Amino acid sequence: MSLIIYVAHSGNRIVAEPTKVNSLESLRAWVQRTAQIPVNKQVFLTSKGKAVRPQTLLTEPEIYVFDSNSFSPTNTSLSLIPDPSPLNPDTPPDSIANHDQLSSWNDLFCRRLDWARALRVQYADLVQSTQRYHQEQAIIQQSVNVAVMSLHLHIRSTEQKYQHEEEWVDKLLTQQEAHVDSWERDLDILQHIPAKPDFARYIQSQTAIPMQQSSHESEVTLQQFVQVDHVKQAASSAQNIMTSFAQRVHNIQQSLETTAKDSDALLEAVQTVHLSRVDNTDEPAKLLEEVDIIVNKMSNDLEHVGSLSNNAQNDARASKMALLHTRNYLPNLDGLCLELNSLVRQTIQQRNNAAQNFLHHMQTLSNIESRLAQVHSSLKTLNMSQSDEQVFDTLNVLSKLPFVYGSLMIEAVRRREWADKMKSDSATLAEEMATYQEEEERRRTKWLKSVDDVVKTEAFEGRPLSVEVNLQADDLEWPVVQRQSLQNYIQTLTELEFPNSVVQTLSTALKDLDRPTKKQIKHAKTFKNGSMHEAAFGTTSLMLRGEDEYKVLREANTKLEEELKGQKSRVRRLEDILHRHAHMNRPTTGDSFRPSIELVSEMVSPSPSSPRPSEELIRQTVGSRRPSSSLAAEEGKLARRVVALEAELHAAKEHASNLEKDAESRKQKDADGQREIDEAVSTKKDIMQNMEAQQREFADERRVLEQD
């Protein structure tokens, strides 16, 4: 497919072969040779106003090329077309040798037809030129539209970037304004929060308190961690910085709005010119059709006269036809020439006006683009200076220092406890490994005694492998902080009505000191589920004393023991009730020698044939003995209690069974889900590999096409 290139300033249309312009560099060189536009002055745009990219060059059907010299405000050169010489036809032949001879009339008709045909050739050339002028005018006007579309795309992109920057600026100014408004309150809060002077060395140098100043003071607060004079100076200059920064943003906004308005005005002017243009591109062709009609009539009349016989009647008929040509056809041809001359002048004027408008609009567009570039550059550099940032950082420290100090205290506790744990675990590890070493030494000695009468004892001298545990660290010495100090600090923040989010965060961090890590929880859950495999349990088989990994196991074991105690208590209560009930039934007749355990079994496990065996047993018991009224009532209560306990025990068993089934079902679902995830990941990898292979194939094909 051929590539059509439109030269914007001249309206020329050039067709290029794709094999000659398969890259931007070759296209620029080809345009320089064809359109005489320097390479460094060429601007390529698509029909949608977008810049031409090397990736889509081969897929573009048409490209508009602009000469950046035409954008210059000092440029006055125009690609204008001068008015051509008007078409003035010669006087048509009108002389005849003999009015009474038909051959003379035939000769006149022949000379007039030759004259008309020669005029028609000149007419056609002029019509073709007129159509070319129309085409150039359309290309010039469309080029302006494309350039304006490109401008609107740039403005839209800049507006989006401005909106993004505006959101950031609004958020920044709101945050800094809050710091400016609350710095006095924050400074007063710091005065009421006690602190350890040892933590001052962890604060930034510009706000740190000197250690020699704090060492002799009895009580230190967080306010002494900052330089009050420096804070007051920052607060006085912060408002001016915010005002200046907001003014910069406002100026950028005004420039962008002015640029957008000028762009809209330019678009409206371009559309107005486009709509006001008279669409007379078909007029030259219509005039040429009328000329062809007249020439065809004259040709037909010549053929008709040539077919007549030579007599007086035919002479008269030929004379009338010649008179018709003289009065109608020939004057009509002259009139059509005048119309065409007027149309040519009008077309050239419209084309030249389009070129002038092009120069004016492109210079306006260039001015807008330059201002837009300034706005874009201002947006890129829309940042605070380092000194301004230091001012706001100083105010920000006031509100953030209580949280940072609390985090430092928690970190000190965590590091100290972790170091203690490492020391304890390393000592335990060394002790256990020493035990292994002693056991191996005793085993070797015992074995050597059994074979010392045969082997050389000195050949087996040596000690078993030993392990030496060394703790190495380049960590800093943190101040000693107790957990009670952390709790007191959080309580102080609560009493000072510090933001609840900060207090809650510190409280959560304090609770997390006792929380096992994810790896420890995973190991504990693996062991709890019954897996004793070392690979599943962890990376070591040593169970160090006091290891945090087993806190979860101990907690779970405690819960299980409590549940077991509750279940045992319930069982004891059931046994006690059943025992007392069986003891009360011993004097009854017929069952004097039955063991009490059988009675208990009979009460706990009723006969399947009876829907309510306990109540039937109650009726038998009541009928077989001579109870008093109070004893019968107590017996009924006990029997109902037994039934209730049986139902409760049965419900508990069903609940436990349901829980086991639910756990098994969830485990199966998790396994199925993991299998589906593995399959999805495998499918995704295959798809990505296929896409990468296709991409490599496309790259190879494109490289081959570029080389061709």
From TrEMBL:
Residues 543-577 form a coiled coil. Residues 654-687, 694-708 have a biased composition (Basic and acidic residues). GO terms for biological process: autophagosome assembly; autophagy of mitochondrion; piecemeal microautophagy of the nucleus; positive regulation of autophagy of mitochondrion; protein transport; reticulophagy; ribophagy. Residues 621-631 have a biased composition (Polar residues). Residues 109-454 form the Autophagy protein ATG17-like domain. It is found in: Preautophagosomal structure membrane; Vacuole membrane. One of its GO terms (cellular component) is phagophore assembly site membrane. It is a peripheral membrane protein. InterPro entries: ATG11, ATG17-like_dom. Keywords: Autophagy, Coiled coil, Membrane, Protein transport, Transport, Vacuole. GO terms for molecular function: molecular adaptor activity; protein kinase binding. Residues 601-634, 654-708 are annotated as: Disordered. Pfam families: ATG17_like. It comes from the Eukaryota. Its main location: membrane. Belongs to the ATG11 family. Involved in cytoplasm to vacuole transport (Cvt), pexophagy, mitophagy and nucleophagy. Recruits mitochondria for their selective degradation via autophagy (mitophagy) during starvation. Works as scaffold proteins that recruit ATG proteins to the pre-autophagosome (PAS), the site of vesicle/autophagosome formation. Required for the Cvt vesicles completion. Homodimer. This is Autophagy-related protein 11. It comes from Aureobasidium melanogenum.
